[in-house]
Amino acid sequence: MGLPDGDGLDLVRQIDDGGAGVRIPTLVLTANLDHSVAARAVDAGAQGALSKVLSMPETVRAIKRLTDAEP
């Protein structure tokens, strides 16, 4: 999961390890989503992963799961 100035999984790890004691839900959006990419994203600390081009119903469900989740 490449970004112009780094790796997306590194960014997820940084968000997950913020140390502030605050849960920040993270949903990875990627052009190349297969099961191994989704698993690596979750292992890095994301709560889920979606593939681009996004399906609106799938995106809404994923965001709802994140916002309804218990801390």
Task: Describe the fold and architecture.
The protein has helices at 8-16, 35-44, 56-68; strands at 2-3, 6-7, 27-30, 48-51. The protein has 71 residues and is of the alpha+beta class. The strands form two sheets. It has a two-stranded antiparallel sheet. The chain has a two-stranded parallel sheet with strand order 3-4.
What distance separates the N and C termini? Answer: 27 Å
Low-confidence segments, given as residue ranges, are none
**Helix/sheet category:** alpha+beta
Query: CATH superfamily, called what?
Result: Response regulator
Mean pLDDT comes to: 80
Brief account:
This protein has one domain: Rossmann fold (3-Layer(aba) Sandwich), CATH 3.40.50. It has helices spanning 8-16, 35-44, 56-68, and strands spanning 2-3, 6-7, 27-30, 48-51. The protein is 45% helix and 17% strand.
